[in-house]
Predict the 3D structure of the following.
Amino acid sequence: MKNRVEETWSKLDDKIRIDYGEAFKNYLISIWNKRLQLAASKRFDYVVDSYYHAITAKYPRCRYRCAYKEKLAMFL
């Protein structure tokens, strides 16, 4: 993520970079990383189980939800 922001930042006009400032760029990177940590899961087995079922099932599902958060979000 940081590399993408840095790459995009370097392509911006100088005026835009000055208007937003380095502090905004660093803030964007930090917020993105914090949100990613909140949303990400360390449970890779959910994904592996979904792939395994999709490959081996006689009738695979149309959509696989890999985390309990996604499964619960369906009912909200």
User: Anything to note?
Assistant: The two ends are 30 Å apart (CA to CA). The helical segments are 2-11, 14-39, 45-56, 68-73.
